[in-house]
Amino acid sequence: MRRFMNFVAGALCGALVGSVTALLLTPKSGEGLRNQLRQRTENFRDEVREAYGARVAQLETELENLRTRPSKKTDE
How far is 75 from 60, CA to CA, in rounded Å? Predict the structure, then answer.
């Protein structure tokens, strides 16, 4: 039982030290981190939309080229 209590005490002390260290070393506040994450998410979403639009335009151009290209018929 004593070993278990020592383990629990050590785990609680480690959690306390880890929590205090995280609070002291965090570069931004929680709101600052949320704002930064939101901004990065919006930027990523915009980049994906731009890439999607560019790819769709490219594929539409290729499709139009294929439609207007004279077809080669091979009669055997």
Answer: 30
Tally of CA atoms within 13 A in the half-sphere of 5 that contains its CB = 2
- Residue 74, domain member (yes or no): no
| Residue 36 CB partners (closer than 8 Å, separation 6+) | 28
The pLDDT tens digits of the residues spanning 41-68 come to: 999 999 999 999 999 999 999 999 999 9
Mark 2-29 as b/e (b = at least 16 C-beta within 10 Å): eeeeeeeeeeeeeeeeeeeeeeeeeeee
Per the prediction, the chain carries an average pLDDT of: 86
pTM greater than 0.70 (yes/no): no
Task: Kindly state whether residue 72 falls inside one of the protein's structural domains.
Answer: no
State the residue range of the domain holding 37. 2-67
